[in-house]
Amino acid sequence: MSEEKKKDAETAEEITEQEETKEAAEAVQPEEDKQEEASEVSELTREQELLAQIEQLKAEKEELNNKYLRAQADLQNFRTRVNKEKEQMLKYSSQRAIEALLPVVDNFERAIAASQDAADVETLKQGIDMVFRQLQQVLEQEGVTTVPGVGEPFDPNMHQAVMQEDSSEYESGIIIEEFQKGYKLKDRVIRPSMVKVSS
């Protein structure tokens, strides 16, 4: 074989190899392009999903924020209403007791009017005694009771000792005289008794 033919054969062989390589590369290239396209489509889909999730979370956040604001407003309205009711209760808390005392006041007025021309002191005394008993009943209905006095052991929670005295009749620490009655409202002392205690 001549040198020229050899070169032509080698060149033809190289060209064939290059063409085969090119064909192989072209065959691989569409596969890579397909993968790239699929990857791009996948990324776009993922991006769309994330955007949809973000929109959904924004909507949920807005809804929760609105619920929170409504709850805050409801709470504020409730507090305002409770405070107003409390003020009303405090303002008129003594109404029931006063309504119960009004008949007693009426009877005192009648007794005073009758005493102007009454010659019978005993009748006047009985009338005042009746009014006093009526007043005591009203106080009892409201839960007002007297603090136990003479003959009872001294209790600093209910009694105020203003004097002490030796006593042969009572042992030490017993109330022997009451100067002013004490009163309790249900279980609370509203005025302690002023007492003399045996020493």
From TrEMBL:
<keyword id="KW-0143">Chaperone</keyword>
<comment type="subunit">
    <text>Homodimer.</text>
</comment>
<comment type="similarity">
    <text>Belongs to the GrpE family.</text>
</comment>
<protein>
    <recommendedName>
        <fullName>Protein GrpE</fullName>
    </recommendedName>
</protein>
<keyword id="KW-0963">Cytoplasm</keyword>
<dbReference type="GO" id="GO:0051082">
    <property type="term" value="F:unfolded protein binding"/>
</dbReference>
<dbReference type="GO" id="GO:0042803">
    <property type="term" value="F:protein homodimerization activity"/>
</dbReference>
<dbReference type="GO" id="GO:0051087">
    <property type="term" value="F:protein-folding chaperone binding"/>
</dbReference>
<dbReference type="Pfam" id="PF01025">
    <property type="entry name" value="GrpE"/>
</dbReference>
<keyword id="KW-0346">Stress response</keyword>
<dbReference type="GO" id="GO:0005737">
    <property type="term" value="C:cytoplasm"/>
</dbReference>
<dbReference type="InterPro" id="IPR013805">
    <property type="entry name" value="GrpE_CC"/>
</dbReference>
<feature type="compositionally biased region" description="Acidic residues">
    <location>
        <begin position="29"/>
        <end position="40"/>
    </location>
</feature>
<comment type="function">
    <text>Participates actively in the response to hyperosmotic and heat shock by preventing the aggregation of stress-denatured proteins, in association with DnaK and GrpE. It is the nucleotide exchange factor for DnaK and may function as a thermosensor. Unfolded proteins bind initially to DnaJ; upon interaction with the DnaJ-bound protein, DnaK hydrolyzes its bound ATP, resulting in the formation of a stable complex. GrpE releases ADP from DnaK; ATP binding to DnaK triggers the release of the substrate protein, thus completing the reaction cycle.</text>
</comment>
<dbReference type="InterPro" id="IPR009012">
    <property type="entry name" value="GrpE_head"/>
</dbReference>
<dbReference type="GO" id="GO:0000774">
    <property type="term" value="F:adenyl-nucleotide exchange factor activity"/>
</dbReference>
<feature type="compositionally biased region" description="Basic and acidic residues">
    <location>
        <begin position="1"/>
        <end position="10"/>
    </location>
</feature>
<feature type="region of interest" description="Disordered">
    <location>
        <begin position="1"/>
        <end position="46"/>
    </location>
</feature>
<dbReference type="GO" id="GO:0006457">
    <property type="term" value="P:protein folding"/>
</dbReference>
<dbReference type="InterPro" id="IPR000740">
    <property type="entry name" value="GrpE"/>
</dbReference>
